[in-house]
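Sat 14:20. Reprocessing the chain from the morning session after the first attempt stalled halfway. Input below, unchanged.
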Amino acid sequence: MAVNSGLQTATKHNTLFGALVNLWLKVNLLPTKTRHEETALSYVGPLEAFTTAWRKSFTYGGKATRSEYWWFYLLNLIVTFVVMMIGSFLMGGASPAYVGHIYFLIVAYFIAQIFPSLSIVFRRLRDIGKEWTWIFISLVPFIGGIWFIILMCQPSGRCETNKASDG
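Finished this time. Tokens:
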């Protein structure tokens, strides 16, 4: 009888443990998020944004959050400045034979950074619900650049489109 009651107690604990695990899985893995929680979860740190943009250089589908976009541009600006400073320092004291190599490396970085920049702009536009053609708004004289910056500052999903162009 003692063995049987011990087995029943163990079964009760296993059932209770199973129920608690199932409850934890429901709460943590399948949450219903409020708008505030989605915003808090969409934060991306600076290095993660920079590396993600480079990894997704040729990925024009999907979305990029506001923090991912602005962190990438800030770090890209800093890296560009550092590359230019190192290049100018090295070119100032380098022999003429190495100046061409240093210049090539600087130009290679500037050309390479075009791809993640375009990709993150396309993904950011998709995140705010705009078509990729809105990238050309910056070509409008005087107001286009300001309008583009305002677009990039919009919160995610602010201007939802009716199309399912997430792919």
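Residues 45-152 form one domain.
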